[in-house]
Specification:
- 55% of the residues are buried.
- Helix content is 35%, strand content 16%.
- The protein is of the alpha/beta class.
- The strands form two sheets. It has an eleven-stranded mixed beta sheet with strand order 3-4-6-8-7-9-10-11-12-13-14, with helices on both faces. A three-stranded mixed beta sheet has the order 1-2-5, with no helix packed on it.
- It contains 18 helices and 14 strands.
Amino acid sequence: MSGQTNPVVSTPHGAVRGRYEHGVAVFRGIPYAAPPFGPRRFRPPVPPEPWEGVRDAGSFGPTAPKPPYSEAFARYLSDPAIPGDDCLNLNVWTPEPGPGARLPVLVWLHGGALTRGSSAVPVYDGRTFARDGVVCVSINYRLGVEGYGLFPDAPANAGLRDQIAALEWVRDSIAAFGGDPGRVTVAGQSAGAISTGALLASPRAQGLFRRAVLQSGAPEASDRDKVRRMVRRMASRLKIPATAEAFAAADRDQLLRAQAEVGRFSSPVLGGPGFGIVVDGDVLPRDPLEALLDGGTAPGVDLMMGWTRDEYRLWLVPGGLLERVDRLGAVALAGARARCHCGNEVVRGYRALRPGAGAAETVGQLVTDHLLRIPMHRTADARPAGSSYLYEFAWPSNLPGLGACHALELGFVFDSGDGPDARRLAGEGAPQELADAMHGAWVRFAETGDPGWPAWDATHPVHVFGDGAPHTAHGPLDAEYDLWKADVTAPRGTRPRRLVRR
């Protein structure tokens, strides 16, 4: 607003000066922890050094070290890289920067397979949440080997520890920005949703948030051997020991190149070694899905979970992998069965339900259901009545081949679809009424815990965005769910390992 003085807010570490933009106050690049380099590299986060005077918070802070997307993916996904060591920072958008407002708070955890992404991605502009009465916080956290490498001489899950430190900052500081520390919603997409699932199960995060949103990422823990394999392959390329001490002494750019090289054949569809959150007996004592299915974890937290109808198309369309999987036919289907730990009956059932589908579509739906929809169904089944809400995003992109793919819903959730970065996935002419519906649901959930459709119960209500007018369908695709349940309960010796347990 013209004529307004730039807002200044005090935090436990010093005062920050933001900007008024589009009628809301925004503070960017506020450190919530010290730079994680030098003696702090591969170590848990520690508070930042306090500063004197007023720190300018007009620009996004440094992003965590990360390799760029491949050319095929960069066509669809933007990922700004901002140099600097002070990468454990966050941003705040607020309509009322001062104590007393007690507004609901939404804390955003970005996606990117725990190896890419940042809070500076333009689609994650939090001003629309602030415009609608929700204080929005977006954070950076350590990625790849810096955040999720598994070493014998360093604690695991540094990136998850960063997220907890950011939530502690929110607890201690957000009231001064107009937020209510007792009404915090943690929301994330893809790797950010997997992180949210881990936070639900982490004893150290209990009491730091009231609600959680998991978009296209279910609670899970990665196999420790797969993470170790990534570290060992990097160490082999760098000709150094697979220890935190040796990695901390290595050149940062060389680490990123080695990480990109050893990780280029991993994907959600193909599997393979990769970085991920692991059970460590400390910050994450149990597999998050197992903990949630037991029913006693995070009992007072409301959940909203969902997926996009064609998640797999973002994983298969770039680079022409969709066509290659179709050509592989039966070989690809056998690989999907192994990837999903399911029996022949599940694969045959999917093919019968989609008689015209090619191998790639069948494989994609199998993997999507295995990784996302089935774990979310099971999690909702285990939660207290009235506390879980499920949705499906079904609007197909205007770009050829993408359908309702992974990450397409982000421009609608943030109501940022008029920007060039959202158009990378959506194309031109994305429907504003769909953005109004989705963004409005997220605002209502942050405010009240009810996004506006029936809570999960025995009828399996799933709210569908984008397949005509937004509506609630009861039991959509339950035929596939029944196939998986039958496979899980088949007699011993007639099926492979149990679904989802990894």
